[in-house]
C-alpha cells in the first residue's frame, strides 16, 4: 500500500511537470498570444474601451424575406431556406476538413482600467488545462486569486515571476463552469491586462468572404473564404466549429481594434450546405492593421465558452487601382474640379458641421473641408445623383442663418466653398457651445425641408455631423434619437480629436467615427465613400 502511494505520488508529479512544460511550449509557439501582446501595446491600461458601431453592422438581407413566402409553404427563393428565407444555402460546399487534434487556444482577453474588479471567465468541457497571465505597466507584478463557482480557491500548479511586468499562473484541469479572477495590487489605478489561454479539444476556424456589387452570388452563400478581410470593403465573417458536439455551438462575436476600441457583441446566424456553417454580415475595417475576434458559444453540456482569434485587414490584391495614400498632405489650394472619374451613386446626404469655438477656423477649416471633400469628390454632386443639404451648427452666441435645403448643390466646388466659408461666421468670432444643434438636427424631420428634394428611392440617407470636442446636450441627443427612430436618416458622427464627448456622441449616432490622428482622415474618407457607393449599388440603406 505504501509502495502504491509512493508511485502514485511520483506519477502525479511527472504528469504535472509535463503539463507545465507543455503549456510553456504551447505559449512560446502560440501565434495568437504573441500577436495580441503586440496589439495590446496600443491599448492604454488605465483607459476605458470605446465601443464603436462602425466595424460590425448588420447588412440587410439580399431578399425581402416575407415577400418570398407562398401560401404558407415557406421560402420559395432559390438559394435560401426557412419559413421566411432567413437561412442562406451555400451554392457549392467547401470540402475542407479540419484537424481534430488538441490545440493551444486563446480563451479570453480581459482589460481592467482599474485592476481591482473581479473578472469572470469560462472553463468549458473541452479544456484540459489553462494559464492566466496578468500584465501591468512598468515593473508592477499583480497577484490574482482564482475561485470556482462554489467559492473554493483554486491553487495554481506553478507561478512564473521572472518577468517584472507580468505574472503567469498555470492551473491543472478543472471542472467546466464559471470561474472568478480576483486581482490584488497596491496600484490598481494603473490598470492591467489579463490573458487566459488553454490546451483544448474544441476550437473555431474563421474566414472572410468579401462582398461587392459585382458578386455572382451573395457573399453569405459563398463557402470559400479568405484568411483575412479586405480593407474598405464589406466582408461576411464565416466560422466553423471543431469538436463542439451538438447542441453546442457558437452564438456571438465581438471585434477588438487598436487603441482601446472594440465592438459590442453581435449575433451569429447559421447557413446550410456549408462547411463554414455560421456567418455574420458584415465586417468593414477602416485600417490596414491587426484585429482580434472574440467568439462566444456553449458546449454540449451548456457551459459557456469563448475563443479569440487574430486576423489582419489587408488591401484587396485583385483591385486594378492602388488605394489612396493613408497620410494626408498639408492642405492644398482650393480645387475647381472634381476628380475625372466619379461614381454615379444616388444618395441623400444632410451634412452638419460644428462651427463653434471648439472647431477654430485657423486650425480646422482647411483640414476638415479637405477631409469632407475627399468623401464627396468620389461622387457627382447633383440633385440627380448625390443630393446634399448643408447646414453649419453655430456656437451659442451666433445666429443660425443658413437653413438647409436639398437641390442646392450642382458641383463639388460650390459645396466645398460653402463648407469652408461656414467656419468663418458672419458675426465675427466663433462662439462656444452647441445649444442650437437640436434645432439643426430636428430640421431633418421637417416636411418643409424634406419636400425640397429628399428622395426616398435614393440610398443611402445619411445625416453626417462633424465635430471635435463639442458635446451634444440632452435636447440634441433626443432630437437625434427621434431622427434615427423615424428611419428617414441614419446619423453618422465624425469627431476629430474628441475628448470627454465620446459617450454623448455615441448616444446620438447610428455610426460613430472617432479620429485621433491626422493619418486616419484619408482612410476614413475613403471608407465612408465606399460605404455610400456600396449601399447605393444595392439600393438599400445598408450599414454606415
TrEMBL record:
Pfam families: GBD_IRG7_N, Ig_Irg-7. The keyword Nucleotide-binding does not apply. Residues 219-315 form the Irg-7-like Ig-like domain. Residues 105-199 form the Irg-7 N-terminal galactose binding domain. Residues 1-26 form the signal peptide. The keyword Transmembrane helix does not apply. It comes from the Eukaryota. Keywords: Signal. InterPro entries: GBD_Irg-7_N, Ig_Irg-7, Innate_immunity_reg, vWFA_dom_sf. SUPFAM superfamilies: vWA-like. PANTHER family: EGF-LIKE DOMAIN-CONTAINING PROTEIN-RELATED, PROTEIN IRG-7-RELATED. This is VWFA domain-containing protein.
Amino acid at each position: 500500500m505504501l509502495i502504491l502511494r509512493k508511485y502514485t505520488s511520483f506519477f502525479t508529479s511527472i504528469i504535472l511537470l509535463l503539463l507545465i512544460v507543455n503549456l510553456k511550449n504551447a505559449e512560446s509557439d502560440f501565434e495568437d498570444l504573441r500577436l495580441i501582446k503586440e496589439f495590446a501595446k496600443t491599448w492604454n491600461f488605465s483607459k476605458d474601451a470605446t465601443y464603436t458601431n462602425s466595424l460590425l453592422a448588420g447588412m440587410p438581407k439580399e431578399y425581402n424575406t416575407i415577400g418570398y413566402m407562398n401560401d404558407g409553404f415557406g421560402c420559395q427563393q432559390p438559394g435560401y431556406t426557412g419559413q421566411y428565407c432567413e437561412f442562406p444555402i451555400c451554392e457549392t460546399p467547401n470540402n475542407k476538413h479540419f484537424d481534430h487534434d488538441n490545440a493551444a487556444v486563446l480563451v479570453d482577453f480581459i482589460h481592467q482600467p482599474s485592476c481591482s474588479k473581479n473578472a469572470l471567465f469560462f472553463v468549458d468541457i473541452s479544456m484540459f488545462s489553462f494559464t492566466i497571465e496578468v500584465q501591468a505597466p512598468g515593473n508592477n507584478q499583480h497577484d490574482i486569486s482564482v475561485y470556482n463557482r462554489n467559492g473554493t480557491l483554486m491553487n495554481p500548479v506553478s507561478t512564473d515571476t521572472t518577468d517584472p511586468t507580468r505574472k503567469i499562473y498555470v492551473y491543472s484541469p478543472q471542472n467546466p463552469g464559471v470561474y472568478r479572477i480576483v486581482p490584488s495590487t497596491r496600484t490598481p489605478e494603473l490598470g492591467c491586462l489579463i490573458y487566459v489561454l488553454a490546451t483544448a479539444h474544441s476550437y473555431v476556424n474563421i474566414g472572410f468572404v468579401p462582398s461587392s456589387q459585382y458578386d455572382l452570388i451573395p457573399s453569405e452563400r459563398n463557402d470559400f473564404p479568405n484568411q483575412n478581410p479586405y480593407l474598405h470593403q464589406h466582408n461576411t465573417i464565416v466560422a466553423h466549429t471543431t469538436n463542439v458536439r451538438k447542441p453546442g455551438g457558437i452564438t456571438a462575436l465581438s471585434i477588438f481594434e487598436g487603441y482601446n476600441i472594440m465592438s459590442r457583441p453581435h449575433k451569429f446566424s447559421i447557413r446550410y450546405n456549408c462547411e463554414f456553417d455560421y456567418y455574420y454580415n458584415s465586417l468593414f475595417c477602416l485600417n490596414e492593421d491587426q484585429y482580434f475576434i472574440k467568439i462566444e458559444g456553449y458546449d454540449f453540456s451548456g457551459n459557456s465558452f469563448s475563443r479569440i482569434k487574430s486576423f489582419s485587414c489587408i488591401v484587396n490584391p485583385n483591385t486594378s487601382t492602388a488605394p489612396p495614400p493613408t497620410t494626408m498632405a498639408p492642405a492644398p489650394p482650393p480645387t475647381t474640379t472634381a476628380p475625372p472619374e466619379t461614381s454615379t451613386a444616388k444618395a441623400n446626404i444632410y451634412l452638419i458641421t460644428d462651427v463653434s469655438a471648439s472647431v477654430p477656423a485657423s486650425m480646422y477649416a482647411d483640414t476638415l473641408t479637405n477631409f469632407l471633400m475627399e468623401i464627396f469628390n468620389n461622387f457627382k454632386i447633383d440633385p440627380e445623383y448625390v443630393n446634399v443639404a448643408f447646414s453649419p451648427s453655430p456656437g451659442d452666441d451666433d445666429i443660425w442663418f443658413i437653413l438647409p435645403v436639398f437641390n442646392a448643390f450642382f458641383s463639388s466646388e460650390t459645396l466645398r466653398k460653402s463648407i469652408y466659408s461656414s467656419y468663418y461666421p458672419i458675426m465675427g468670432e466663433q462662439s462656444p457651445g452647441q445649444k442650437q444643434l437640436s434645432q439643426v438636427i430636428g430640421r431633418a424631420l421637417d416636411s418643409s425641408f424634406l419636400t425640397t428634394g429628399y428622395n426616398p428611392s435614393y440610398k443611402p440617407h445619411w445625416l453626417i455631423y462633424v465635430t471635435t470636442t463639442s458635446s451634444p446636450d440632452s435636447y440634441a441627443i433626443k432630437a437625434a434619437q427621434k431622427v434615427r427612430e423615424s428611419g428617414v436618416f441614419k446619423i453618422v458622427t465624425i469627431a476629430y480629436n474628441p475628448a470627454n464627448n465620446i459617450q454623448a456622441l455615441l448616444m446620438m449616432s447610428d455610426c460613430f467615427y472617432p479620429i485621433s490622428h491626422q493619418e486616419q482622415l484619408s482612410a476614413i474618407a475613403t471608407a465612408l465613400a465606399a460605404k455610400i457607393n456600396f449601399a447605393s449599388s444595392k439600393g438599400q440603406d445598408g450599414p454606415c
